[in-house]
């Protein structure tokens, strides 16, 4: 099918975009990379009165390393993230996760901010934001809010962004030198949405272990697996602790059954993939 | 705002322009307004890859872009590969290795493979299989396609 009629706006600045969103009061959709929104339009599952195309706002794209974190403009293409030397050095978990996002031709257009705003819980970027404790900057008519993953994601495809708000920037803390990482995912075919994905990072500092774990596809929002991280931080990175953390991870998720997989299967995948992700991450850690 | 808008772009090295409503998809603009029917329309939701073209040198789904978004862009379609009667080395390779059966997915396969070989000039078979998973061949003729892309890689490096 083809998209229904809509008003089309291509503002040149964030201010203009936010003003347009406010004017339509929730009946407009921001258009980022379009890799999720345009299919919804083509199938007429979405019928917004207007599209606010963000692709002409140059200031929304780009990657900068600042003090202790990397700031990614919301319109930075996934393909740019994938090949960014700054990201590879400071956020290797993000580089690895990006290779799981759709396919290269999807990543040519898809953006990091669009993926987060779409809030598909089986997507990779929401899990990375959750695991690394990053934030997003949301700009609205009344100014900016900085939201952590737990404040942004509400449920399936639903965020706390207000009708006049746009994600403008994503901030991720730089992974410490010597950190190990892995993104493990299972899908029926490469490039499909994950049935379950696991983002993992571990590092040692003066003998103390820090672990970061988040699950995608195992509940209505990405799940930080804090109690599993605590097992590793307390008991270290040996095989027994990894097995215990993986088993705990499976208890922490709240998966639903759908046509792709049952809840029990997703829970089991959470355990298996957490174990695999941790083994890879520990192998890569200094 | 939902009225027709002007679109000016460069397609296969030639400056083109047209007018269309903002809701017109790039793939339909290429086929209907520019008359270039080599690019195929399959699933219209970004899964099958038949409509893949190069946008500013990078493979992208033409069914997931509005024509108006391509204003100012450089587009390469499958018609831009051959030089007159001389096939592009990638097309030659598809012919030699039986890389097509019904031909419906072929434009998407070619444009996807071209971008893939730019990113991975010396790919492993696994790289090619993963890269081509972006396009569906319902004849299931993947083996020939993978062979064709692998064989084309050294020719494109020259």
Task: Give an overview of the whole structure.
Chain A has 286 residues and is of the alpha+beta class. Chain A has three domains: 7-56, 2-Layer Sandwich (Uridine Diphospho-n-acetylenolpyruvylglucosamine Reductase, domain 2), CATH 3.30.43.10; 58-173, Uridine Diphospho-n-acetylenolpyruvylglucosamine Reductase, domain 3, CATH 3.30.465; 180-284, 2-Layer Sandwich (Enolase-like, domain 1), CATH 3.30.390.50. Chain A has twelve helices and 14 strands. Chain A has helices at residues 14-24, 37-42, 78-82, 85-90, 92-98, 104-107, 112-118, 124-132, 149-152, 226-235, 239-252, 263-284, and strands at 7-9, 28-31, 50-53, 63-65, 69-73, 135-140, 143-148, 153-155, 158-159, 166-173, 180-186, 196-205, 208-216, 223-224. In chain A, the strands form four sheets. Chain A has a five-stranded antiparallel β-sheet with strand order 4-5-10-6-7. In chain A, strands 11-12-13-14 form a four-stranded antiparallel β-sheet. Chain A has a three-stranded parallel β-sheet with strand order 1-3-2, covered by helices on one side. In chain A, strand 8 (153-155) and strand 9 form a beta hairpin. In chain A, helix 10 (226-235) packs antiparallel against helix 11 (239-252) and helix 11 packs antiparallel against helix 12 (263-284). The radius of gyration of chain A is 19 Å and the shape is globular. The relative contact order of chain A is 0.12. Chain B has two domains: 5-79, Ubiquitin-like (UB roll) (Roll); 89-157, [2Fe-2S]-binding domain (DNA polymerase, domain 1, Orthogonal Bundle), CATH 1.10.150. Chain B contains five helices and five strands, in the order ββαβββαααα. Chain B has helices spanning 26-33, 89-96, 106-119, 125-132, 142-157; strands at residues 5-11, 14-20, 52-55, 58-61, 74-76. In chain B, helix 2 (89-96) packs antiparallel against helix 5 (142-157). The model of chain B has no long low-confidence stretch (mean pLDDT 97). Chain A binds chain B through residues 1-10, 34-35, 38-39, 41-43, 50-51, 53, 55, 79, 102-106, 108-109, 189-191, and chain B through 1-2, 5, 21-25, 28, 44-46, 49, 52, 55, 58-61, 63-66, 68-69, 112, 115-116, 119, 130-131, 133-134.
């Amino acid at each position: 099918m083809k998209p229904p009629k809509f008003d089309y706006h291509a503002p040149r600045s964030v201010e203009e975009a936010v003003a347009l969103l406010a004017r339509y009061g929730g009946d407009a959709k921001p258009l980022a990379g379009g890799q999720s929104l345009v299919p919804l339009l083509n199938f007429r599952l979405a019928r917004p009165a207007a599209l606010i195309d963000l692709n002409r706002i140059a200031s929304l794209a780009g990657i900068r390393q600042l003090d202790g974190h990397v700031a990614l403009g919301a319109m930075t293409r996934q393909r740019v993230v994938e090949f960014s030397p700054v990201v590879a050095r400071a956020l290797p978990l993000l580089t690895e996760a990006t290779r799981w996002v759709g396919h290269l031709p999807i990543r040519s257009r898809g953006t990091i901010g669009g993926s987060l705003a779409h809030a598909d819980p089986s997507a990779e970027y929401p899990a990375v934001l959750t695991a690394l404790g990053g934030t997003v900057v949301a700009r609205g008519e009344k100014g900016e809010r900085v939201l952590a993953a737990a404040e942004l994601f509400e449920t399936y495809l639903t965020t706390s962004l207000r009708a006049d708000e746009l994600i403008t920037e994503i901030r991720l803390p730089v992974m410490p030198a010597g950190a190990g990482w892995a993104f493990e995912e299972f899908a029926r075919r490469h490039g499909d949405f994950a049935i379950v994905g696991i983002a993992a990072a571990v590092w040692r500092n003066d003998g103390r272990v820090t672990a970061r774990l988040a699950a995608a596809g195992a509940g209505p929002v990405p799940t930080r697996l804090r109690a599993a991280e605590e097992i590793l931080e307390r008991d270290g990175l040996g095989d027994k602790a990894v097995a215990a953390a993986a088993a705990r991870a499976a208890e922490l998720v709240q998966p639903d059954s759908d046509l792709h997989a049952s809840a029990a299967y997703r829970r089991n995948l959470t355990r298996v993939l957490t174990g695999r992700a941790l083994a890879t991450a520990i192998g890569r850690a200094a | 705002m939902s009225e027709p808008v002007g679109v000016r772009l460069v397609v296969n090295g030639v400056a083109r322009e047209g007018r269309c409503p903002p809701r017109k998809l790039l793939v339909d603009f290429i086929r209907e307004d520019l008359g270039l029917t080599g690019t195929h329309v399959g699933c219209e939701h970004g899964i099958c890859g038949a409509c893949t073209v190069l946008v500013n040198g990078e493979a992208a789904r033409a069914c997931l872009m509005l024509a108006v978004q391509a204003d100012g862009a450089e587009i390469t379609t499958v018609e831009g590969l051959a030089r007159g009667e001389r096939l592009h080395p990638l097309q030659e390779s598809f012919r030699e290795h039986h890389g097509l059966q019904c031909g419906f997915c072929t434009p998407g396969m070619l444009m996807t493979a071209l971008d893939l070989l730019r990113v991975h000039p010396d790919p492993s078979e696994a790289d090619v299989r993963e890269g081509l998973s972006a396009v569906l061949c319902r004849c299931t003729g993947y083996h020939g396609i993978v062979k064709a892309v692998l064989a084309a890689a050294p020719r494109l490096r020259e």
